[in-house]
Amino acid sequence: MTEYCSKCGSALEMRECKGEDSLIPYCPECKEFRFPTFSVAIITAVLNPQKTRVLLMRQYGRERYNFLAGYVNKGEDAETALKREMQEEMQLKPVSFKYIRSSYFAKNNVMMMCYLSIADSDDISHYSRWEVDEARWCTYNEATNIVIQGGVAAYLLEEIKNEIND
Length: 166
Known about the structure:
Layout (H helix, E strand, L loop, with lengths): L12 E3 L8 E4 L4 E2 L5 E9 L6 E5 L9 E4 L6 H13 L3 E12 L4 E10 L14 E5 L1 H7 L5 H9 L6
Parallel strand pairs: 4-8
Antiparallel strand pairs: 1-2, 2-3, 4-6, 5-9, 7-8
C-alpha cells in the first residue's frame, strides 16, 4: 500500500469510505481518498491467419513461453496497445481481435486485458530481437505443454481451444 499522498506527499490514514468493504487510504490534507492504483496491460493469444497455430514467445531471459503482452501507455486504449505491441514485437498486424476478459496479476500489480487476435501473416522472422528471445508457432497441444500452468496464458489457451485445429 502507498503510505503517502501522490498529490501532496502527506502521510495517508486508513479510513472507512461509504460503499467500500474495507478501509481506504485517505489524505487528511487534500481531504480525498487515494484508491490503490495499478498498471494496465494487454495480453493476446495470436493465431496465424489459418487459425491452426498459436504464437508463443520467450522474453527477457525467461525459460517459459507466454503470449504477446505489453503495457498500455498513458493516453492509449487497450486496443491501440494491442496493435502497437504486435507491430513492435513481432512485425505483425491484427486482422481481427476480440476481448476475452480481464485478469488481475497480483505479482506485478497489473490488470491484464486478455484478447484473442488473428495475425495478418505467419511470418515471424522479423521479430524484435530487443524484446523477444524466441518466437514460434505452436499447435494447441504443443502450447498447452509449454505455457505457464495456472496463469493467464493457460486460461487463454482454454478460451481458444475451439479456434485451433491441430
